[in-house]
Design goal:
Rossmann fold; 16 helices; Helicase, Ruva Protein, domain 3; five-stranded parallel sheet; 3 domains; alpha/beta; about 325 residues; elongated; two-stranded parallel ribbon; Zinc Finger, Delta Prime, domain 3
Length: about 325
C-alpha cells in the first residue's frame, strides 16, 4: 500500500496495478484512490466519463478491453480502465498477459481480483510492468491506530474505551467499523470526544462476541458473569436456541484449533487449514488454553444433549443454556 501512496504522491503512477487480498476495505480504498488520482472522482461518480472504462466479471472480452486500453485519452493525461473479477489471475490467460505487456503510457489499468495465482503469466506480466498489491487482514494494533487516525481526519477525537467498544461491536472488519463510525459521527455531531458510552449507545454487539465472553467466564468459573451475559442477550431478543448453536460452534472451533496450536502452527496456517478468519483463530487460540481437550469434547457432547432435550420438550430452550452455563462455570472443589 505504501508503494501506491508514494506513486500518487510523486505523480509517478505505473501503467498497471493488481489489487487483491483478505481485507476488502483496503482493496476498494486503494482502487478508488488510484482512480481519483487520475480523474478526480471515484468510480461510482464516473458513469459516462469518456476517459473511464469499467469491465466486470469473467465474461470480459480481452479484445474489447484491449481496444479501450489503446484509446487515447480525451483532453486528459490518461485514461483509466478498471477490470474487476475477470478470473485472469487464477489461471493463465496468454491473450490478457500480452495485452498487459503492451499497455501504453496514456492508460492506467487497475485489476481487482479475489483469487490470484502467482504462477500465472498475467500475474507475472503485472509484476514486470506495474505493481501487485496484496492487502492482508489487519491485526488488532493496526486496526486501533486506523480508527484513531480515521476519527482524527474527521476532526474529532476518540477515547481508548470507545475504540475497544467499537472493535467489540464490529470485530476487525474494517468495512463494518467504517459503517459504525458513520453512525457515531452523526450521533456525536458537535462533540470533540467520542466516548465508550456513545459507541455502546449505537452499536449492537454481535451475539458471537457475547458468546465468546460467556465461554471465557465459564472457563474461569465466573458463573454470575456468564449468566448475566446470557440474560443480556435474551433482553436483546436473541433466541436461546440460536445462542446454544453459537456455543456449540465455538466449542467445535476450540476443539479443532487446540491440537493444531499444540503442534506449533501459527494462526494464519491454522486459519487456512480450518477455513476460518485469522482473528477468529487468534481468539480461539487464546481461549483454548483454559480448557483441556477432554473438557471441550465433553462440553460439546453436553451442548448437543441439552439441545436434544429442549427439542423434545424435556426442558425449555432457555433452561438448556442455563444448565450448560451452570455446569461449566461451577468452581472446582
Amino acid at each position: 500500500m505504501y508503494v501506491i501512496k508514494d506513486d500518487i504522491k510523486n505523480k509517478s503512477l505505473k501503467k498497471v496495478y493488481l489489487l487483491y487480498g483478505d481485507e476488502p476495505y483496503l482493496v476498494i480504498y486503494f482502487r478508488d484512490l488510484l482512480v481519483e488520482a487520475v480523474l478526480g472522482k471515484r468510480p461510482t461518480d464516473l458513469s459516462g466519463d469518456m476517459n473511464f472504462s469499467r469491465f466486470v466479471g469473467t465474461a470480459v472480452d480481452v479484445k474489447k478491453m484491449e481496444g479501450s486500453v489503446g484509446t487515447m485519452p480525451f483532453f486528459a493525461e490518461k485514461r483509466v480502465i478498471l477490470a474487476e473479477g475477470t478470473g485472469w489471475f487464477s489461471k493463465t490467460n496468454e491473450e490478457a498477459a500480452a495485452m498487459i505487456k503492451s499497455i501504453p503510457d496514456s492508460s492506467l489499468v487497475i485489476f481487482v481480483e479475489k483469487e490470484v495465482d502467482k504462477r500465472t503469466a498475467t500475474y507475472k506480466a503485472v509484476e514486470k510492468c506495474g505493481h501487485v498489491a496484496f492487502f492482508a487482514e489487519q491485526q488488532l494494533e493496526e486496526i486501533q491506530k486506523w480508527i484513531v487516525a480515521k476519527v482524527n481526519a474527521h476532526h474529532q477525537k476518540i477515547t481508548n474505551g470507545a475504540v475497544d467498544a467499537l472493535i467489540k461491536c464490529a470485530g476487525l472488519n474494517m468495512t463494518a467499523i467504517s459503517t459504525e463510525l458513520e453512525k457515531v459521527y452523526a450521533y456525536c455531531d458537535g462533540k470533540e470526544f467520542i466516548g465508550r458510552e456513545d459507541v455502546e449507545a449505537l452499536c449492537h454487539v454481535k451475539a458471537e462476541d457475547r458468546v465468546f465472553d460467556m465461554i471465557q467466564y465459564m472457563a474461569t468459573k465466573k458463573r454470575e458473569e456468564a449468566l448475566k451475559l446470557y440474560y443480556d442477550l435474551l433482553e436483546l431478543r436473541e433466541s436461546p436456541t440460536g445462542i446454544l448453536s453459537l456455543i456449540e460452534r465455538q466449542f467445535r472451533i476450540l476443539i479443532a484449533v487446540k491440537p493444531l496450536a499444540a503442534k506449533g502452527m501459527n494462526k494464519r496456517a491454522i486459519a487456512e487449514e480450518l477455513d476460518l478468519k485469522p482473528f477468529v483463530v487468534d481468539k480461539a487460540m487464546y481461549q483454548a488454553r483454559f480448557f483441556s481437550q477432554e473438557d471441550l469434547i465433553e462440553a460439546l457432547k453436553d451442548t448437543a444433549e441439552y439441545d436434544r432435550q429442549s427439542k423434545f420438550g424435556e426442558i425449555s430452550d432457555r433452561m438448556a443454556v442455563e444448565l450448560l452455563l451452570i455446569k461449566y462455570s461451577e468452581a472446582d472443589e
